[in-house]
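LOG
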Amino acid sequence: MNNPNLPRRHFLQEITLATGAAIAVGGANNLFAEPQPVEGKIKVGCTSWVFHNLSAGESPAESIDILGAMGFDGVELIINAPEDLKSFWTDEQIGKIRRQLDKYGMEVSQLAIFQPVVEDLTSLDADKRNIALDRFEAGTVIAKKLGTQIVNIVAPWSRELNCPGGGYLPRYYDLPNPERNQKFELRLDESFDWNAVWNQYIETTKACLERVKAHKMRFSIEHHTHCLIHDASSFLLLWNALQDEALGINLDVGWIQSQREYPPVAIHKVKGHLFHLHIRDIDGMMRQFVHIGEGVRDFPGIINALKKTGFTGFISLEQDKHQGDMKATCKRYLALMRELIDSRSTG
């Protein structure tokens, strides 16, 4: 398993087979500043929504039991809807979840706030922005009560931009079976002004940071297609505008590679600003997020880049719900990550 001359693809295949068998048996002024690595070990987590949907009122309780029994270090939780801020995430519910986590020795890697809750952070309407900011702060308070240090959002997209038929804009990035004369297009409002939207988003992110730091928390932003932060470089532009150590990125290797950026390079780009990592596999066309071990993901390269850049936070599996055994996928992922993290050399 530790043969340094083994090609990465063969190395991954060996690990996947071996772990499957085991499971069956049992610098502030510099845009590219590089803070010194810290001591510690990468922790392995999973998103709770691998085993639940994202509807209002959905509980992560079953997910915690499943992942805790498998031996994960932590779980990432999510606030699904605006009404859940008050109706679901009560002190009583938070207490139950914390006791459940303690039972398995797990922690909350970060608390995500789903897009519908804070989508108006990019609005040019001050009243709508303020509502979104209040919701964001309410989510920050919940995150702190859950015992995590990080509150997370996917960067919203401009309110003046949408896809034909509406829906979740980041998912609209190709036409697998286009009709005759069909073109890929986005709906862009005539009022769209990029500079106005971007400059306001900088100020709004600053306001988010003020609220986060008031609770002694940190803020991670995830990139998705068509969002204001869509890749590693756009995050660095935002960070350089604000230069605040409380701001970091939740890098998703799936969304990065679907935009044709090699994940280990992106990890090196955001060195020192990487708070959390989402991991998933991807098919050879860089379109579908397939089950772990079924795609072309360079997992050894990713772990090697994390080690070289001194990352010691959570790598969290965010697996799309394809047909198949999701529990087996999680077990395979956990065993693979343990092997790669413990290996002296991954490349």
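LOG (cont.) second protein
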Amino acid sequence: MSRSKSTFDGLPKLTKDGKLQKSIENRNPHEEMPFAYFAALLIFCAVSIDWVVKHPPSASEFLPLERFVQRQHWILADFDTEYSMNDEKTAFDVAVVLGYRLNERTKAVDDRCSYRLKSRVEHAIERFCYRKVENVMFSGASPSPRKKKKNEEDVVISEAEAMFKYAVEIIAKAPKVRGRHEETYRCPIERETFVPLERGDGFRSYVGRDSKNVSFKWVLEENSYSTRDNAEKSLLLAKEHGWKSIVVSTSHFHQFRAKRVFKKVISNEKELKGANIELKMLKQTREAELMRYLPKDGSERTTEFFIAEFEFFRELLAIAYYKLIRNWI
């Protein structure tokens, strides 16, 4: 009488010496899984990733991965910074705002400053308005022009000019201040107060008068394509104007390299030796609030997240290049 097939028949069987039968040892479980399972899994992963990229989660604050990237940037921040509005220290002669990539997703000239570049400008202009900085310098050259489409006009401006236009917009709309800072607060300042000064060496500068009728100067340094160029050209311009105390406004992830490059130029440049230049990095208090610039949802927020992660690893490579190959820091 034949025995009916049992569900235990497919289990591994042992020989008398405790080893698996050869038929079981050579058995490949993946051969029993239909190929359709793999295809379905791949399709599901592709659709899920595509949906997340196009429909990122809505949030009014940092998401966990965004907070992680923010902490990465803080690793490279300089903690010996200058920011307090309440100290009695004499104001810095000039704030140097370092350039950053422009926003190429818009054709509007007045909206070319990217999110992080706006943050750099705002921190410098805030100190300027409270008279903690007497003058401002914007340092950054023109980016490479994009490939134009037919019948498309594309205006390419320098990072310095984009920052200047945004800064003028800020001080023109600045609110009035009452209270303890009323005597020193110098904004708002009308656009018409800026008078351009002609120069023959490729630099532009503007002289203006604030609400207290005190003159100031804003300089556009438009020939820098790297942090090294920023340091050399801005420091030489500062010496030319007699500015000896400098505060540099740049993002957290860029402060480590920027500070060391500036100090290296000060110590090595013949024209700067003996100048007794005081250098500080400007604390970026709004870096932790960067998400207030970004939309609460949409692909733009996802794009900015990947840009921030890319900037961190790119900065690590730049530090290694500046230190090991170029000896600039």
